[in-house]
């Protein structure tokens, strides 16, 4: 008989829910964005800037980017945990991906609030 050590109940449930929530946020934003894009009077740089002039659109766009980055983090982290066995390599990969995603979030904020 084999003894299995259970490390925690519902370990993957939180990640599964997080990915579903972030995917829902991204899907809703995509619909919202397309509707806003179709309502533009003209496809010009000025119209594009006017669309992002309001704080709500900037916030919604930043929420989209944060959802995308967190969604990517959960997926990539799970792939690394499943397929990269050496702990040092996995830690290095996690660190690089985390730093990149944090940098991308900062870059997105800089772009959105510089408009």
TrEMBL record:
Record carries keyword Electron transport: yes
Locations listed in the record: Cell inner membrane
Cofactor(s) this protein cannot do without: heme
Annotated binding of a ubiquinone, by residue: 83
Gene Ontology cellular-component annotations: plasma membrane
Keywords, ordered alphabetically: Cell inner membrane, Cell membrane, Electron transport, Heme, Iron, Membrane, Metal-binding, Transmembrane, Transmembrane helix, Transport, Tricarboxylic acid cycle
Binding residues for heme: 71
Organism domain of life: Bacteria
Cofactor note: The heme is bound between the two transmembrane subunits.
Regions crossing the membrane: 21-44, 50-70, 91-113
Pfam families linked: Sdh_cyt (PF01127)
Molecular function as annotated in GO: electron transfer activity; heme binding; metal ion binding
Single biological process term from Gene Ontology: tricarboxylic acid cycle
Pathway where it operates: Carbohydrate metabolism; tricarboxylic acid cycle
Membrane topology listed for this record: Multi-pass membrane protein
The UniProt record lists the keyword Nucleotidyltransferase: no
Known function: Membrane-anchoring subunit of succinate dehydrogenase (SDH).
PANTHER family on file: SUCCINATE DEHYDROGENASE HYDROPHOBIC MEMBRANE ANCHOR SUBUNIT (PTHR38689)
Protein name: Succinate dehydrogenase hydrophobic membrane anchor subunit
Source organism: Niveibacterium umoris
């Amino acid at each position: 008989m084999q003894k299995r050590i259970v490390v925690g109940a519902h370990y993957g449930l939180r990640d599964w829910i997080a990915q579903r929530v972030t995917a829902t946020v991204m899907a809703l934003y995509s619909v919202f964005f397309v509707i806003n894009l179709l309502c533009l009077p003209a496809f010009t740089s000025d119209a594009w800037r006017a669309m992002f002039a309001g704080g709500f659109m900037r916030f919604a766009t930043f929420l989209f980017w944060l959802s995308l980055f967190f969604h990517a983090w959960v997926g990539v982290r799970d792939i690394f945990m499943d397929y990269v066995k050496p702990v040092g390599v996995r830690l290095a990969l996690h660190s690089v991906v985390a730093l990149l995603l944090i940098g991308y979030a900062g870059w997105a904020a800089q772009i959105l609030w510089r408009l």
